[in-house]
Please model this.
Amino acid sequence: MRCTVTGATGMLGRALCRRLLDEGHDVIALVRDEARARARLPAGVALVRGDVRDRASVARAVAGADAVFHAAAWYKVGLGAAAGEEAEATNVAGTRNVLEAARDAGARRILYTSTVAIYGDTKGRFVREDDDPVSAPATIYEATKRRAHYEVFEPMARAGAPVVALLPGVIYGPGDEGPVAGALRMWLAGKLGMLPAGTTFCWAHVDDVAAAHVAALDRAEVGRSYLLTGPAHTMVEAFGVAARALGRGPPPIVVPAPLLRAAARMLRPLSGHLPPAFDPESLRSTAGTTYLGRSDRARAALDFTPRSLEEGFVPYVRALADEAVAR
Model:
């Protein structure tokens, strides 16, 4: 198949491009910076310069594609309300550009990477694909991804477009540049002294998530959503696994959720003017929040088999530790 990938230089995008090439597909990547893409992507990926916010460049990238994987997203936390315009342009308008352009180009399968975060804090409950959101979005990222899912993907699905949504939880692994990797690097450098109590994610290795995306090419039912959520662990548990693997202590302080919520309220006037880790949005989104989903549908239809945290997280953390020593 001829497959176009957006977000190809990100962690998931790179793993997805490698897997598609390994399975014999032709891969085209929509990229903003060709030099950066050449350095990050495997040989064999054809590049089209553009941006998901630019409909004309998206149309060039998806022309002639049998399948389109839309993995590009704006994913940042703790930047304040000023970041909303960029998030909206990428996560909502950009998703509309890609999905509609792919449909208009005649793509037989359009696979959109959504997120379990569209449900908000699940309050300890494991949601399923057809459940309604549980709570209000805690971040700009959550709000815009929710809008993209319910205002772009779902109407297109109801109208009969060949779209499929894939909803991961926390993804970790080689190439991670997100908040989890940032926290791990701070801890390895001796600069992270505390973790939030009760904050729980479903953790999945990037290669397992990429494998499910590729499986969805043939096995997913058009118009449906699939949660790609791995095993659930608190932040404290995940760092405990990492600490035991490296023979060092985890961050020593565990901050109760009520204290984080109180700090978020108190610091609200300073939002956008603080380091991202201390911005009210960051504090609110980690104050005992849970982002939990059941992946039964993906396990049955896509053979999604996420590895345990011990299997996947430990080698990843050891690689980060080696990287820190090399520096």
Q: What stands out?
A: Residues 7 and 71 are 5 Å apart (CA to CA).
